Amino acid sequence: MDPLSDLLEGVRARTAAFCQAILDPPWALRIADGAALALATALHGHAWIVPDHGEPTLMRTGDVAIIKGPHPYTVSDDPATVPDIVVHHDNRLTTMDGTDVTDALRLGPRTSGLTRDGSAIVASGTYQIGSDVTERLLNALPDIVLVPAAEAQNPVMTLLAQEVGRDGPAQEVVLARLLDIALVATLSAWFARPDARAPGWYRAQSDPQAGPALRLMHDDPAHPWSIAALAAKVGCSRAALARRFTALVGEPPITYLTHWRMALAADLLRTSDHTIETIAHRVGYANAFALSVAFKRIRGVSPTQYRAGDSLAAR
């Protein structure tokens, strides 16, 4: 495994919501579905993505955007257009005063609008995320990631666009798999851009020393790694590895490993009924006490408190 693969593992589209909107100007949709992450593309025409705080982003035909939630934002034909429809969780649509118009605007499976002849078609898929591991990915992203059509993975997006309005057996599964591929492809294309300011752990993956060390820690986080053990595996001196890793990733190898273990432990505490002792062994600590000391030092609460729901204090 590598850092990006591990982080994306938590964003698989198991509970994704899909939709396409067919629109004529002036139009504006207020997106208030609370999704942690959305992937959108303009299949026809253009759309402006307008955050409540920040500059609007123009999405032209074929461009692909990743929008980081969960705060509401607006998608419109023009940044000045005032929204008249609100998109809620599960693609429920209301007017601004709360009147439900989901059925009135339904044109077909996952498709809404007044007519099928609109000048703009916007398709999207959204993710609900509850993973500390994945939040490490989200923290590395700006609020809006835009990949131009020339750099986007057009075959994947074309197939997703073809399938989003269809209905049939296992269609949601098909869409979820396509959305996952589209998300990975879009992130990879964006990270490869020279102006993307990709996180250090992404840039380090291609380094002959830091890259293998990262993969070793992600492959087996429970192993009793030391800087000496990592350097021996990578084939360089401890000083060289520490210097190179810190310069690229932004923190020393063992510090990175500790934070990675804490993210894994937090996810296990939240999503499993394993004992703290079992979780400790799975993430590289000798016993529950050792994990508890490290977890409280980094997260501010004990594993027991975190599991009981005191997670806000741990961020």
Q: Could you explain the architecture of this structure?
A:
The chain has 315 residues and is of the alpha+beta class. The protein contains 12 helices and 13 strands. The chain has a 7-stranded mixed β-sheet, with helices on one face. Strand 4 and strand 5 form a beta hairpin. Helix 3 runs antiparallel to helix 4, helix 6 crosses helix 7 and helix 7 crosses helix 8. It is elongated, with a radius of gyration of 22 Å. The two termini are 25 Å apart.
Give the arrangement of secondary structure elements.
Elements: H1 3-9, E1 17-23, E2 28-31, E3 37-44, E4 47-51, E5 57-59, E6 64-68, E7 73-76, E8 85-87, E9 93-95, E10 106-108, E11 111-113, E12 120-127, H2 132-138, E13 144-147, H3 154-164, H4 171-191, H5 200-203, H6 210-219, H7 227-234, H8 238-249, H9 253-271, H10 276-282, H11 288-299, H12 303-307
Parallel strand pairs: 1-11, 2-8
Antiparallel strand pairs: 1-12, 2-7, 3-6, 3-12, 4-5, 4-7, 6-13, 8-9, 10-11
Uncertain regions spanning at least 5 consecutive residues: 311-315
How many beta-strand elements? Answer: 13
The major pleated sheet works out as: 7 strands, mixed
Discrete helix count: 12
Strand content: 15-25%
SSE string: HEEEEEEEEEEEEHEHHHHHHHHHH
Radius of gyration: 22 Å
Major beta sheet, strand line-up: 10-11-1-12-3-6-13
Overall spatial form: elongated
Distance between the first and last residues' Cα: 25 Å
Mean pLDDT: 89
What is shown here, in short?
This protein is α+β, with helices and mostly antiparallel strands.
